[in-house]
């Protein structure tokens, strides 16, 4: 396995859920992280917990391409030697049928999950190639493979992320860059609270009377995929809670 002490990990969406858990897990393993997100109070608390020598923080909205480029250009040593990008920031908004969905919700999901993610990867890839290698880890979802009612644009953004990751692999052939799309299923984070816009009782429903995965479970799969030797590339990693499986096709009988 690789030595995680050599890892410098740029994380989007490090204020909560998978991103925050991954920041803790990488620092625990001896790595350094650049933790980014919009909520500065959360970033400051994370830095206080992990130590400024291990955790550099940047307030960043992934929809702002100029800010991403400026933040990367201004990184101090040793945080400027990024060799892992965890393109994790993302969200689902709403669960209405397509004909009733709020179009601004769709726009926000596309602007974050697709546009923000490609900005992030595009900004960091050339530096990693110039430094001799690295690893791009993207956050897809089971929703990128399996359709479900109300998942129209969210699932489609995650299908985009999967194909983007696979296509990048083709482009970086021979450059010592690995690309992995992590595809989790039901995991209890702030994801559901965001999807249902702060409605705590609706947000709790998907996790009621069952055992979902938690952010630490996914952080473990993320770090595992990056610890494997350089000659091993996990293309896609689909992970579900043991309590989650597949349903029947929905046949309409009029
Ligand atoms: P959380 O809501 O707990 O975390 C989402 C993170 O994304 C937050 O840190 C948030 O930070 C950040 N974020 C959202 N919008 C922006 C933005 N415009 N700019 C920068 N950061 C942003 O959810 P999860 O940890 O569960 O989700 C992380 C990723 O995993 C997402 O891409 C999600 O789609 C995916 N996923 C989640 C699953 C689940 O069941 N939980 C399953 C499969 C995939 P801030 O608001 O501070 O900017
Ligand atoms: C998050 C999992 O099933 O809520 O991507 O879409 S799901």
UniProtKB/TrEMBL annotation:
<keyword id="KW-0560">Oxidoreductase</keyword>
<dbReference type="Pfam" id="PF00106">
    <property type="entry name" value="adh_short"/>
</dbReference>
<dbReference type="InterPro" id="IPR020904">
    <property type="entry name" value="Sc_DH/Rdtase_CS"/>
</dbReference>
<comment type="similarity">
    <text>Belongs to the short-chain dehydrogenases/reductases (SDR) family.</text>
</comment>
<protein>
    <submittedName>
        <fullName>NAD(P)-dependent oxidoreductase</fullName>
    </submittedName>
</protein>
<feature type="domain" description="Ketoreductase">
    <location>
        <begin position="7"/>
        <end position="185"/>
    </location>
</feature>
<dbReference type="InterPro" id="IPR057326">
    <property type="entry name" value="KR_dom"/>
</dbReference>
<dbReference type="InterPro" id="IPR036291">
    <property type="entry name" value="NAD(P)-bd_dom_sf"/>
</dbReference>
<dbReference type="InterPro" id="IPR002347">
    <property type="entry name" value="SDR_fam"/>
</dbReference>
């Amino acid at each position: 396995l690789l030595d995680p002490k050599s890892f410098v990990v740029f994380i989007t969406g490090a204020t909560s859920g998978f991103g925050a858990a991954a920041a803790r897990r990488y620092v625990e393993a001896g790595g350094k992280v650049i933790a980014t997100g919009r909520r500065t109070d959360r970033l400051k608390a994370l830095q206080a917990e992990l130590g400024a020598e291990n955790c550099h923080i940047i307030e960043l909205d992934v929809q702002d391409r100029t800010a991403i480029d400026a933040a990367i250009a201004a990184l101090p040593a040793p945080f400027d030697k990024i060799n892992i990008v965890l393109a994790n920031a993302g969200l689902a908004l709403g669960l209405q049928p397509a004909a009733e969905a709020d179009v601004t919700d769709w726009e926000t999901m596309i602007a974050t999950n697709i546009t923000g993610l490609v900005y992030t990867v595009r900004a960091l890839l050339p530096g990693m190639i110039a430094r001799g290698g690295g690893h791009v880890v993207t956050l897809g979802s089971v929703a990128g493979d399996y359709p479900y009612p109300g998942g129209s644009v969210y699932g489609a953004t995650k299908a985009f992320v999967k194909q983007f990751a696979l296509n990048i692999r083709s482009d970086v052939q021979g450059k010592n860059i690995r690309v992995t799309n992590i595809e989790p299923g039901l995991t209890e984070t702030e994801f559901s609270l965001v999807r249902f816009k702060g409605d705590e009782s609706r947000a709790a429903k998907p996790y009621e009377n069952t055992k979902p995965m938690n952010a630490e479970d996914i952080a473990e799969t993320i770090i595992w995929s990056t610890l494997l030797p350089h000659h091993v590339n996990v293309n896609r990693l689909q992970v579900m809670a043991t309590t989650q499986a597949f349903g029947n096709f929905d046949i309409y009988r009029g």
